[in-house]
Amino acid sequence: MELFTPDFGLIFWMFVSFGILFLILWKLAWPAILKGIDQRADLIDKGVEYAQNAKEQLDNAHQEAEKYITEARKQQADMLREADKMKNQIIEEARGEAQKEAQKVMEQAKVSIQQQQKEAEQAFRDSVSEFALQIAQKVVKQEMADQKAQSKLVDSLLNEMESKK
Questions:
Q1: pLDDT by residue (tens digit) across 79-88?
Q2: Model-level pTM?
Q3: Chain centroid, CA 105 distance in Å
Q4: Is 5 left (phi over 0), alpha (psi -120 to 50) or beta?
């Protein structure tokens, strides 16, 4: 059982070697371990800060995107309203032009009808005059067939001309 009950010398050397090892670790390893832990803590803090900044930037980007989307929708609505106004204006202009054109066509038709009516009246008058002259010629030929009627007509025309002077 000597293995389980250590000797005083063994305990002494174990404490000395533990003290030396502790001093070496305390002087050399402990600062490196603390430095590594601090670096790791700084790295974690920077990562957390970076994540928070990224989250803030993402939130800001979402807000800006929403703002741009809202603005784009407003612009789209304005463009649609403007297009509708332009459509209505074009339709009204086309209607006005069509009415003007129809009015011109109606005026031209009226002028054409009046002109044709005048031409028809003139043609009718010419025809009536021609028929009247033909009738008068036939009547005059029948009445002027004898010499006495001819001299009577010439005398009456001469008298008429003298009276007008």
A1: 999 999 999 9
A2: 0.41
A3: 33
A4: beta
